Amino acid sequence: MFEKVRAEIFGNGLKTEFKVSKEDFTRNRKQRFPILLLFMLNFLKKSLSLEIENFTSLLKVGPNAKFTKSAFVQARKKVRPEVFDRLSQVLLNEFYTDNEPAIKLWKGFRLLAVDGTRITLPITAELKEIYGETKNQSSTVLVQARCSVIYDVLNKYVLDGALEPLKRGERDLALSHLGHCNSDDLMIYDRGYPSYDFIYQHINRDFDYLMRAKTSFSGLVKDFEESRKKSLVVSIYPGKNAKLSDKEYTKNSPIKVRLIRIDLGKGNVEILMTSLLDSNVHPTSQFKELYFKRWGVETFYDELKNKLRIEHFSGYSNQSILQDFKAALFVSNVQTLIVSELEEDLKESNRDKKYDYKVNTNISYGLLKDRVVTLFLDKKPTGIDIVEELKTLYKSHLVPIRTNRKSERNPDKYRSRIKPKITKNQKDGV
Description:
The protein is α+β, with helices and mostly antiparallel strands. It has 2 domains: 3-82 and 319-401, no CATH class; 84-297. Helices cover 39% and strands 18% of the residues. A hairpin with a 2-residue loop joins strand 8 (255-265) and strand 9 (268-274). The two termini are 24 Å apart. The mean pLDDT is 90. Residues 404-430 are annotated as: Disordered. One of its GO terms (molecular function) is DNA binding.
Protein backbone atom coordinates (compact mmCIF):
# COMPACT_ATOMS: atom_id res chain seq x y z
CA MET A 1 0.00 0.00 0.00
CA PHE A 2 2.81 2.41 0.87
CA GLU A 3 5.62 0.89 -1.17
CA LYS A 4 5.97 3.84 -3.55
CA VAL A 5 6.15 6.35 -0.70
CA ARG A 6 8.69 4.19 1.12
CA ALA A 7 10.81 3.91 -2.01
CA GLU A 8 10.63 7.68 -2.45
CA ILE A 9 11.76 8.34 1.13
CA PHE A 10 14.79 6.04 0.88
CA GLY A 11 15.70 6.91 -2.69
CA ASN A 12 18.42 9.43 -3.48
CA GLY A 13 16.22 11.55 -5.74
CA LEU A 14 14.17 13.01 -2.88
CA LYS A 15 17.26 14.03 -0.95
CA THR A 16 18.85 15.59 -4.00
CA GLU A 17 15.77 17.66 -4.84
CA PHE A 18 14.72 18.79 -1.38
CA LYS A 19 17.92 19.49 0.49
CA VAL A 20 18.55 23.19 0.94
CA SER A 21 22.15 23.17 -0.33
CA LYS A 22 24.00 20.75 -2.60
CA GLU A 23 26.60 20.32 0.17
CA ASP A 24 23.97 19.06 2.65
CA PHE A 25 23.77 15.35 3.55
CA THR A 26 26.98 14.51 1.68
CA ARG A 27 28.68 13.07 4.80
CA ASN A 28 27.59 9.93 6.65
CA ARG A 29 25.84 11.44 9.67
CA LYS A 30 23.69 9.89 12.42
CA GLN A 31 20.67 11.72 11.00
CA ARG A 32 20.46 10.47 7.46
CA PHE A 33 17.94 12.25 5.25
CA PRO A 34 15.24 9.50 5.33
CA ILE A 35 15.60 9.00 9.10
CA LEU A 36 15.22 12.75 9.60
CA LEU A 37 11.99 12.73 7.58
CA LEU A 38 10.56 9.83 9.60
CA PHE A 39 11.35 11.63 12.84
CA MET A 40 9.56 14.77 11.66
CA LEU A 41 6.52 12.68 10.70
CA ASN A 42 6.20 11.18 14.18
CA PHE A 43 3.91 13.81 15.79
CA LEU A 44 6.56 15.90 17.56
CA LYS A 45 4.35 17.37 20.30
CA LYS A 46 6.38 16.67 23.45
CA SER A 47 9.79 18.02 24.43
CA LEU A 48 12.22 17.34 21.60
CA SER A 49 14.57 15.60 24.02
CA LEU A 50 11.82 13.15 24.96
CA GLU A 51 10.82 12.68 21.35
CA ILE A 52 14.42 11.87 20.39
CA GLU A 53 14.72 9.32 23.21
CA ASN A 54 11.47 7.70 22.11
CA PHE A 55 12.49 7.69 18.43
CA THR A 56 15.96 6.21 18.95
CA SER A 57 14.50 3.55 21.25
CA LEU A 58 11.98 2.73 18.54
CA LEU A 59 14.78 2.27 16.01
CA LYS A 60 16.74 0.23 18.57
CA VAL A 61 19.96 2.12 17.85
CA GLY A 62 22.96 1.98 20.14
CA PRO A 63 24.04 4.90 22.34
CA ASN A 64 26.64 5.97 19.79
CA ALA A 65 23.96 6.36 17.12
CA LYS A 66 21.75 8.72 19.14
CA PHE A 67 21.56 12.39 18.20
CA THR A 68 20.98 15.48 20.31
CA LYS A 69 18.25 18.10 20.18
CA SER A 70 20.78 20.64 18.89
CA ALA A 71 21.88 18.25 16.14
CA PHE A 72 18.25 17.81 15.02
CA VAL A 73 17.60 21.55 15.00
CA GLN A 74 20.65 22.04 12.79
CA ALA A 75 19.81 19.10 10.53
CA ARG A 76 16.20 20.16 9.86
CA LYS A 77 17.49 23.47 8.50
CA LYS A 78 18.85 21.49 5.56
CA VAL A 79 15.42 20.12 4.51
CA ARG A 80 12.95 22.03 2.37
CA PRO A 81 9.38 21.74 3.73
CA GLU A 82 8.07 20.93 0.23
CA VAL A 83 9.47 17.40 0.62
CA PHE A 84 6.23 16.45 2.39
CA ASP A 85 4.21 17.88 -0.51
CA ARG A 86 6.04 15.43 -2.77
CA LEU A 87 5.32 12.49 -0.47
CA SER A 88 1.63 13.44 -0.38
CA GLN A 89 1.58 13.65 -4.18
CA VAL A 90 3.09 10.17 -4.48
CA LEU A 91 0.44 8.83 -2.11
CA LEU A 92 -2.39 10.62 -3.93
CA ASN A 93 -1.20 9.50 -7.35
CA GLU A 94 -1.19 5.92 -6.12
CA PHE A 95 -4.75 6.24 -4.81
CA TYR A 96 -6.30 8.09 -7.75
CA THR A 97 -4.57 6.13 -10.53
CA ASP A 98 -4.29 2.59 -9.11
CA ASN A 99 -7.51 2.42 -7.13
CA GLU A 100 -10.24 3.53 -9.53
CA PRO A 101 -13.10 1.32 -8.20
CA ALA A 102 -12.66 2.77 -4.70
CA ILE A 103 -12.77 6.44 -5.75
CA LYS A 104 -16.00 8.11 -4.63
CA LEU A 105 -17.55 10.52 -7.13
CA TRP A 106 -20.72 12.58 -7.38
CA LYS A 107 -22.30 12.20 -10.83
CA GLY A 108 -18.85 11.68 -12.30
CA PHE A 109 -17.34 14.65 -10.44
CA ARG A 110 -14.67 14.59 -7.79
CA LEU A 111 -15.97 17.01 -5.14
CA LEU A 112 -13.28 19.42 -3.93
CA ALA A 113 -13.94 21.97 -1.21
CA VAL A 114 -11.66 24.94 -0.67
CA ASP A 115 -11.66 26.87 2.56
CA GLY A 116 -9.38 28.91 4.75
CA THR A 117 -8.73 29.35 8.45
CA ARG A 118 -6.25 31.05 10.73
CA ILE A 119 -3.39 29.20 12.41
CA THR A 120 -1.86 30.74 15.53
CA LEU A 121 1.95 30.73 15.44
CA PRO A 122 4.65 31.25 18.07
CA ILE A 123 5.46 34.89 18.74
CA THR A 124 8.98 35.46 17.40
CA ALA A 125 10.65 38.33 15.57
CA GLU A 126 11.06 36.21 12.41
CA LEU A 127 7.41 35.14 12.31
CA LYS A 128 6.20 38.68 13.07
CA GLU A 129 8.24 39.90 10.12
CA ILE A 130 6.83 37.25 7.78
CA TYR A 131 3.19 36.98 8.90
CA GLY A 132 2.56 40.28 10.69
CA GLU A 133 0.71 40.85 13.96
CA THR A 134 -2.98 40.65 14.82
CA LYS A 135 -4.96 41.38 17.96
CA ASN A 136 -7.85 39.52 19.53
CA GLN A 137 -10.80 40.98 21.46
CA SER A 138 -8.64 41.58 24.54
CA SER A 139 -5.98 43.37 22.46
CA THR A 140 -3.51 40.52 22.97
CA VAL A 141 -0.93 40.52 20.18
CA LEU A 142 -0.95 37.34 18.13
CA VAL A 143 0.99 36.04 15.16
CA GLN A 144 -1.36 34.22 12.80
CA ALA A 145 -1.05 32.70 9.34
CA ARG A 146 -3.74 32.16 6.76
CA CYS A 147 -4.18 28.46 6.06
CA SER A 148 -5.93 27.27 2.90
CA VAL A 149 -6.53 23.71 1.71
CA ILE A 150 -8.27 22.01 -1.18
CA TYR A 151 -9.95 18.88 0.13
CA ASP A 152 -11.63 15.90 -1.51
CA VAL A 153 -14.75 15.75 0.68
CA LEU A 154 -15.89 12.30 -0.45
CA ASN A 155 -12.52 10.52 -0.31
CA LYS A 156 -11.15 12.70 2.53
CA TYR A 157 -7.75 13.55 1.08
CA VAL A 158 -5.95 16.89 1.16
CA LEU A 159 -4.76 17.66 -2.35
CA ASP A 160 -2.85 20.82 -1.46
CA GLY A 161 -2.33 23.13 1.49
CA ALA A 162 -0.78 26.56 1.97
CA LEU A 163 0.29 28.63 4.96
CA GLU A 164 0.70 32.31 4.10
CA PRO A 165 0.54 35.80 5.68
CA LEU A 166 -2.96 37.10 6.39
CA LYS A 167 -2.48 39.85 3.83
CA ARG A 168 -2.69 37.23 1.10
CA GLY A 169 -6.38 36.80 0.31
CA GLU A 170 -8.40 33.59 0.38
CA ARG A 171 -9.30 33.90 -3.32
CA ASP A 172 -5.65 34.18 -4.31
CA LEU A 173 -4.78 31.08 -2.30
CA ALA A 174 -7.79 29.21 -3.70
CA LEU A 175 -6.61 29.93 -7.26
CA SER A 176 -3.15 28.61 -6.35
CA HIS A 177 -4.76 25.23 -5.57
CA LEU A 178 -6.26 24.87 -9.05
CA GLY A 179 -3.05 23.37 -10.38
CA HIS A 180 -4.07 20.21 -8.51
CA CYS A 181 -7.46 19.98 -10.27
CA ASN A 182 -8.72 18.54 -13.52
CA SER A 183 -11.78 18.98 -15.74
CA ASP A 184 -13.73 16.27 -13.89
CA ASP A 185 -13.63 18.19 -10.60
CA LEU A 186 -16.39 20.28 -9.05
CA MET A 187 -15.10 22.96 -6.67
CA ILE A 188 -17.28 24.04 -3.74
CA TYR A 189 -16.75 27.41 -2.03
CA ASP A 190 -18.26 29.35 0.84
CA ARG A 191 -19.72 32.84 0.45
CA GLY A 192 -16.40 34.65 0.91
CA TYR A 193 -15.06 33.56 -2.46
CA PRO A 194 -17.36 34.64 -5.34
CA SER A 195 -16.27 37.51 -7.60
CA TYR A 196 -16.46 38.00 -11.35
CA ASP A 197 -12.71 37.45 -11.77
CA PHE A 198 -12.70 34.37 -9.52
CA ILE A 199 -15.50 32.79 -11.54
CA TYR A 200 -13.79 33.79 -14.80
CA GLN A 201 -10.60 32.00 -13.71
CA HIS A 202 -12.59 28.77 -13.28
CA ILE A 203 -14.46 29.06 -16.57
CA ASN A 204 -11.25 29.92 -18.41
CA ARG A 205 -9.65 26.72 -17.09
CA ASP A 206 -12.75 24.61 -17.76
CA PHE A 207 -13.43 23.94 -14.05
CA ASP A 208 -16.95 23.62 -12.67
CA TYR A 209 -17.89 25.26 -9.38
CA LEU A 210 -20.60 25.69 -6.77
CA MET A 211 -20.42 28.79 -4.56
CA ARG A 212 -22.57 30.36 -1.93
CA ALA A 213 -23.22 34.03 -2.82
CA LYS A 214 -24.03 36.96 -0.58
CA THR A 215 -27.07 38.99 -1.57
CA SER A 216 -24.71 41.96 -1.74
CA PHE A 217 -22.77 40.26 -4.55
CA SER A 218 -24.87 42.10 -7.13
CA GLY A 219 -28.31 43.50 -7.83
CA LEU A 220 -29.05 40.34 -9.83
CA VAL A 221 -28.57 38.15 -6.76
CA LYS A 222 -30.67 40.45 -4.58
CA ASP A 223 -33.48 40.55 -7.17
CA PHE A 224 -33.32 36.76 -7.51
CA GLU A 225 -33.69 36.25 -3.77
CA GLU A 226 -36.67 38.62 -3.62
CA SER A 227 -38.31 36.92 -6.61
CA ARG A 228 -38.60 33.65 -4.63
CA LYS A 229 -37.69 31.69 -7.77
CA LYS A 230 -35.92 28.40 -7.19
CA SER A 231 -33.48 28.55 -10.10
CA LEU A 232 -32.50 31.09 -12.77
CA VAL A 233 -29.69 31.38 -15.36
CA VAL A 234 -28.35 34.93 -15.62
CA SER A 235 -25.36 36.76 -17.08
CA ILE A 236 -22.95 38.60 -14.79
CA TYR A 237 -20.44 41.30 -15.74
CA PRO A 238 -17.40 42.88 -14.06
CA GLY A 239 -18.21 45.44 -11.37
CA LYS A 240 -18.35 49.11 -12.33
CA ASN A 241 -15.20 49.92 -10.37
CA ALA A 242 -13.23 46.80 -11.31
CA LYS A 243 -9.72 47.38 -12.62
CA LEU A 244 -9.58 45.73 -16.05
CA SER A 245 -6.36 47.04 -17.59
CA ASP A 246 -4.48 43.80 -16.79
CA LYS A 247 -7.39 41.44 -17.50
CA GLU A 248 -8.29 39.31 -20.50
CA TYR A 249 -11.90 40.47 -20.43
CA THR A 250 -13.74 43.79 -20.70
CA LYS A 251 -16.68 45.33 -18.86
CA ASN A 252 -18.92 43.89 -21.60
CA SER A 253 -17.79 40.27 -21.19
CA PRO A 254 -20.71 38.19 -19.86
CA ILE A 255 -20.48 34.98 -17.86
CA LYS A 256 -23.54 32.78 -17.59
CA VAL A 257 -24.19 31.50 -14.07
CA ARG A 258 -27.07 29.66 -12.51
CA LEU A 259 -28.57 31.03 -9.30
CA ILE A 260 -30.27 28.60 -6.93
CA ARG A 261 -32.41 29.40 -3.90
CA ILE A 262 -32.13 27.08 -0.90
CA ASP A 263 -34.68 27.38 1.90
CA LEU A 264 -33.07 26.43 5.21
CA GLY A 265 -36.19 26.78 7.37
CA LYS A 266 -37.20 29.43 9.93
CA GLY A 267 -37.13 32.02 7.15
CA ASN A 268 -33.43 31.50 6.40
CA VAL A 269 -32.34 31.39 2.77
CA GLU A 270 -29.00 30.86 1.03
CA ILE A 271 -28.23 31.64 -2.59
CA LEU A 272 -25.92 29.34 -4.53
CA MET A 273 -24.15 30.13 -7.77
CA THR A 274 -22.95 27.40 -10.11
CA SER A 275 -21.62 26.59 -13.56
CA LEU A 276 -23.98 23.57 -13.76
CA LEU A 277 -26.55 25.35 -15.91
CA ASP A 278 -28.71 22.47 -17.16
CA SER A 279 -31.60 21.93 -14.74
CA ASN A 280 -32.56 18.69 -16.49
CA VAL A 281 -29.16 17.15 -15.76
CA HIS A 282 -28.79 18.86 -12.37
CA PRO A 283 -32.22 19.52 -10.83
CA THR A 284 -32.52 22.24 -8.22
CA SER A 285 -33.50 19.75 -5.53
CA GLN A 286 -30.01 18.22 -5.42
CA PHE A 287 -28.07 21.35 -4.51
CA LYS A 288 -28.91 21.67 -0.82
CA GLU A 289 -27.34 18.30 -0.05
CA LEU A 290 -24.53 18.90 -2.53
CA TYR A 291 -23.49 22.19 -0.94
CA PHE A 292 -23.67 20.63 2.53
CA LYS A 293 -20.91 18.22 1.50
CA ARG A 294 -18.58 21.21 1.78
CA TRP A 295 -18.75 20.64 5.54
CA GLY A 296 -16.09 17.94 5.10
CA VAL A 297 -13.36 20.58 4.87
CA GLU A 298 -14.58 22.14 8.14
CA THR A 299 -14.32 18.71 9.76
CA PHE A 300 -10.80 18.40 8.40
CA TYR A 301 -9.81 21.67 10.08
CA ASP A 302 -11.13 20.28 13.36
CA GLU A 303 -8.82 17.30 12.89
CA LEU A 304 -5.88 19.53 11.99
CA LYS A 305 -6.27 21.80 15.01
CA ASN A 306 -7.72 19.60 17.73
CA LYS A 307 -6.52 16.08 16.87
CA LEU A 308 -3.26 16.62 15.00
CA ARG A 309 -2.73 19.73 17.19
CA ILE A 310 -1.04 21.62 14.41
CA GLU A 311 -0.64 24.77 16.53
CA HIS A 312 1.72 22.88 18.88
CA PHE A 313 4.78 23.35 16.69
CA SER A 314 8.09 21.56 17.21
CA GLY A 315 10.18 24.64 16.40
CA TYR A 316 10.08 28.42 16.21
CA SER A 317 11.58 29.17 12.81
CA ASN A 318 9.39 29.61 9.74
CA GLN A 319 11.05 26.59 8.15
CA SER A 320 10.09 24.46 11.17
CA ILE A 321 6.51 25.77 11.06
CA LEU A 322 6.15 24.85 7.38
CA GLN A 323 7.75 21.44 7.91
CA ASP A 324 5.28 20.63 10.71
CA PHE A 325 2.32 21.92 8.70
CA LYS A 326 3.11 19.98 5.54
CA ALA A 327 4.06 16.85 7.50
CA ALA A 328 0.65 16.99 9.23
CA LEU A 329 -1.16 17.13 5.88
CA PHE A 330 0.79 14.09 4.69
CA VAL A 331 0.07 12.12 7.88
CA SER A 332 -3.62 12.99 7.52
CA ASN A 333 -3.60 11.41 4.06
CA VAL A 334 -1.82 8.33 5.42
CA GLN A 335 -4.52 7.93 8.08
CA THR A 336 -7.26 8.38 5.46
CA LEU A 337 -5.80 5.67 3.24
CA ILE A 338 -5.65 3.14 6.08
CA VAL A 339 -9.20 3.97 7.25
CA SER A 340 -10.52 3.68 3.68
CA GLU A 341 -9.27 0.09 3.59
CA LEU A 342 -11.72 -0.69 6.42
CA GLU A 343 -14.80 0.63 4.64
CA GLU A 344 -16.18 -2.74 3.51
CA ASP A 345 -15.56 -4.30 6.92
CA LEU A 346 -17.41 -1.43 8.63
CA LYS A 347 -20.38 -1.71 6.25
CA GLU A 348 -20.67 -5.38 7.08
CA SER A 349 -20.44 -4.84 10.85
CA ASN A 350 -22.95 -1.95 10.75
CA ARG A 351 -25.63 -4.04 9.04
CA ASP A 352 -27.54 -5.09 12.18
CA LYS A 353 -26.77 -2.14 14.45
CA LYS A 354 -28.91 0.83 15.44
CA TYR A 355 -26.21 3.29 14.37
CA ASP A 356 -23.55 3.16 11.73
CA TYR A 357 -20.08 3.22 13.25
CA LYS A 358 -16.88 4.84 12.10
CA VAL A 359 -13.25 4.86 13.22
CA ASN A 360 -12.52 7.21 16.14
CA THR A 361 -10.35 9.77 14.37
CA ASN A 362 -8.68 11.09 17.51
CA ILE A 363 -7.68 7.62 18.68
CA SER A 364 -6.57 6.62 15.18
CA TYR A 365 -3.98 9.40 15.08
CA GLY A 366 -2.76 8.41 18.53
CA LEU A 367 -2.33 4.82 17.37
CA LEU A 368 -0.38 6.07 14.35
CA LYS A 369 2.23 7.64 16.64
CA ASP A 370 5.48 5.59 16.40
CA ARG A 371 3.82 3.15 13.98
CA VAL A 372 4.11 5.72 11.19
CA VAL A 373 7.88 5.39 11.60
CA THR A 374 7.81 1.59 11.35
CA LEU A 375 5.34 1.87 8.46
CA PHE A 376 7.89 3.60 6.25
CA LEU A 377 11.10 1.94 7.43
CA ASP A 378 12.94 0.13 4.67
CA LYS A 379 13.66 -2.76 7.04
CA LYS A 380 10.74 -3.85 9.23
CA PRO A 381 10.69 -6.20 12.23
CA THR A 382 10.13 -9.76 11.03
CA GLY A 383 6.54 -10.96 11.02
CA ILE A 384 4.94 -7.55 11.66
CA ASP A 385 2.48 -6.01 9.20
CA ILE A 386 1.94 -2.49 10.51
CA VAL A 387 -1.00 -1.76 8.22
CA GLU A 388 -2.88 -4.85 9.34
CA GLU A 389 -2.04 -4.10 12.95
CA LEU A 390 -3.42 -0.57 12.58
CA LYS A 391 -6.58 -1.85 10.90
CA THR A 392 -7.22 -4.22 13.79
CA LEU A 393 -6.63 -1.46 16.33
CA TYR A 394 -8.83 0.98 14.43
CA LYS A 395 -11.71 -1.51 14.32
CA SER A 396 -11.50 -1.85 18.10
CA HIS A 397 -12.04 1.92 18.53
CA LEU A 398 -15.27 2.80 16.75
CA VAL A 399 -17.80 5.53 17.54
CA PRO A 400 -21.45 5.81 16.43
CA ILE A 401 -22.45 8.24 13.70
CA ARG A 402 -25.38 10.26 15.06
CA THR A 403 -27.05 12.16 12.24
CA ASN A 404 -29.04 15.41 12.36
CA ARG A 405 -27.08 16.81 15.30
CA LYS A 406 -26.69 20.58 15.16
CA SER A 407 -24.72 23.13 17.15
CA GLU A 408 -24.20 26.85 16.81
CA ARG A 409 -21.10 27.65 14.84
CA ASN A 410 -18.65 30.26 16.14
CA PRO A 411 -16.27 31.11 13.27
CA ASP A 412 -14.16 33.43 15.47
CA LYS A 413 -13.41 30.92 18.21
CA TYR A 414 -9.79 30.46 17.07
CA ARG A 415 -9.03 34.19 16.92
CA SER A 416 -9.52 35.05 20.58
CA ARG A 417 -6.82 32.85 22.04
CA ILE A 418 -3.21 31.87 21.60
CA LYS A 419 -3.22 28.15 22.37
CA PRO A 420 -5.78 25.64 21.09
CA LYS A 421 -8.50 24.74 23.57
CA ILE A 422 -9.34 21.06 23.89
CA THR A 423 -12.88 20.40 25.07
CA LYS A 424 -13.32 18.27 28.21
CA ASN A 425 -14.68 15.26 26.33
CA GLN A 426 -11.73 15.15 23.96
CA LYS A 427 -8.32 14.17 25.31
CA ASP A 428 -5.15 14.47 23.31
CA GLY A 429 -4.57 11.57 20.94
CA VAL A 430 -1.05 12.63 20.04
